[in-house]
């Protein structure tokens, strides 16, 4: 690292690294060749760039101080010619990839020609055709200069330039992405670049013997400052891999980190997603040689980072021996020489904050941020910045410069943001990326992330572009969604399915039906740091250049949706549209899945009743759940056409008009991961899971529904009968494991018993994920408290008829009369609009309450026996009748799962017992469920490395360790030991309860709920054993 004052410009930087160590330098891999790198020491870089600078100075048209455009694809070419141009006394401008569209290419090159005043352009001869006929720019082949370098004399240009260069001189020009119009050229000075390097270095953990790795194109400022110049600043090796090789094989990045002991690299969010998928899909053998112990910083910028992705990737990297918190979301721009804020506590802090996207951390030293347009710093507004890292103006563009800075000298980033109480920056989105249609504001990046999370087989993940456009100058603005396809042009079925998923997802989230345009992957290429060309796509769409795609998609969509074919479908369509209102009514068709429309459990009950009244028939709710479209429901309602369902013997009367019982309800059909099975709560229905299922995008989701809702169906008579029934249904739908099961309340007991049956089958039938949503293992004490009245009152709360399930009733009489009195009391106390909405009869309510009471009664003597291998317990505020606090609920009840499960993890979630799955809290629950669910299935390919620590050694645990959110029950016989001098870290580690519990693999244990006092009066603390992923 340079001593203060010794380095005033980049020439000083090169001189110092050459003088300090002539063995370090550049390792660069050619395209599609990751076995034969080219090596160039920093001393050799000085010699080579000096010779080529001399050759460059002798070329016709050379102008000292002029701009020279570098259009080179290879990393080593870019590095050598960057320094050669600097040595020659000129300003290098690193060119970005040229637009594919010929008209856009011509405009782009004409813009650069004018902006840089007829610059010389250095390029390889193979790229000449990309310029010829598109630009009047002077082209010079680097092969010609390389041949000429041996015939020219050399002088000590480095020392000349060291003397001549001033700190504020223009050093280089970097092009902005041009995603919102013509590219601007950011002027970077020596002083600005060196200030940026000092700021980055202040948050690094770089040590001798490690290296930095770059795979991003050198036209991006991150490649230049985050890797190339920072490696020189620290006197370390730098490794370069071509972008195409890493994008094609994300695991290559990890293999190179292992091979070269890389400590720092950069990856935008789209590569992080690809990296996670590659790790999950890889077999154990391909991961055996990956060891990420050297990695300290995986910096991510350019796109928002979803917290769930951060959590899952952090777990995956730690299974490959990376330290915790290596993933560091950052904020930076071309105008700031890349990163200037870094999140050093991701993902633990982000999970605790409950945000959907990771924060970008705190500013480095000397860098200042403020949020304009709000009175308080933590309010949302426009992010404005200043500091020595920030540029002063755009090259040859006074208008853009004037509009970029405020009157008091702050640079307006154009990003919407807020700063939290800890000083962390959170971006909401770019102002120009906000789309406003019919009074609804849509953040393009948010919708793109939402669509990417669907993992649709017909679309390239992370290649969605959303923007507003006008089909004609007189039209209102529409929402366009452009996506890259994976299917063949004649695969109409896949095109329809993808189109339907995009439309229904957008309708669900924003109430707007989008204009969907499928394109070839080549037409929606991201920039080197992952930015989407929204402006260019909008222009192409409005100019009719995507017309063929639009017409093909419209034709297929028209064929996909059909008109009602009979009176039943027509009536059903009318009822659906009336039920869901004007916002999305026009987009509901005969083949539109109802579960894609964002409806709630109450919506379904209301819809069912409207159908019954409108068609004058009885509609079992299970049929509505199982028939996801009007087309399917219409077929089901025809008496002569019944589908072959999963049948279950029923003991009802033979002469009854019974509906064949099928416990399985498909809540989500798409996804390639292990299916998730959800077991109903004590009321028997699975409606409570609809919101959760909507948010799980990577796997099919099935609900298991109790028997007894339909005419002629008897109730289950025992827990064993219910479990046997659900076991057979699961095996018919999913014959082989691994299995993933979860139960809400009473359903957790059923899931536990079913898991024992599944895992008892031997090899290959693993239950890798088993979850309890707020239920302890021992429940008979509670079951014995519940009489028919209690069950009816709890059902009333479930349906939104009462707000207090423990409310006292004033019903009179006994037997059926008392039950009728209870129901009347419930109906009298219920909000009239809710009763009208549900159109629930007293007979329906009584039948449902009977079923709930039957379910509770058959578990009055239940005791858990046997054991399962794993259990995740998601807990919230309990009912007051069972515990007075979460702590009591956890310590005295939930922790007893450890008696019947080998590996138990506890996760605190929002809400109360009856609201933990509601709209308000389900997002947080989904985030916490998703991480262990995916990790549990993936862990089979590589177990976590586990070690045992004592409290007395906590001083050796890094402050960024995941220990801040772990917990385990206290040992049965605590001992006392003398605390170490550095016990000050203990309060950071030992907590009375976990924050939003951070998960790190199946082998992780949690720290006790009890707290070791940081400064005990007697000088001793309780002893505890901690199992942590190292």
Fold and architecture overview:
With 1030 residues, the protein is an alpha/beta fold. Among the domains are: 438-557, GMP Synthetase, Chain A, domain 3 (2-Layer Sandwich), CATH 3.30.300; 561-643, Non-ribosomal Peptide Synthetase Peptidyl Carrier Protein, Chain A (Orthogonal Bundle); 644-777 and 864-938, Rossmann fold (3-Layer(aba) Sandwich); 785-857; 943-1029, no CATH class. It contains 35 helices and 35 strands. It has a nine-stranded mixed sheet, sandwiched between helices. A seven-stranded mixed sheet has the order 25-27-26-28-29-30-31, with helices on both faces. Strands 6-5-3-4-7-8 form a six-stranded mixed sheet. The longest helix has 20 residues, at 919-938. It is elongated and about 110 Å long.
| Total E-strand runs | 35
Major sheet summary line: 9 strands, mixed
Tell me the strand percentage band: 15-25%
Strands in their spatial order, largest beta sheet = 2-1-10-9-11-12-13-14-15
What CATH calls the topology of the domain at 644-777 and 864-938 is Rossmann fold
Question: What is the class of the domain at 644-777 and 864-938 in the CATH system?
Answer: Alpha Beta
- The best one-word shape is elongated
Assign the structural class, choosing from mainly alpha, mainly beta, alpha/beta, alpha+beta, or little secondary structure.
alpha/beta
Proportion of helical residues: 25-40%
What is the CATH superfamily label of the domain at 644-777 and 864-938? Alpha/Beta hydrolase fold, catalytic domain
By CATH, the architecture of the domain at 644-777 and 864-938 is named: 3-Layer(aba) Sandwich
- Rounded to an integer in angstroms, the radius of gyration calculated over CA atoms is 32 Å
Report low-confidence residues grouped into runs of 5 or more. Answer: 640-658, 807-814, 938-1030
Q: Give the N-terminus to C-terminus distance in angstroms.
A: 30 Å
> Averaged pLDDT, please?
80
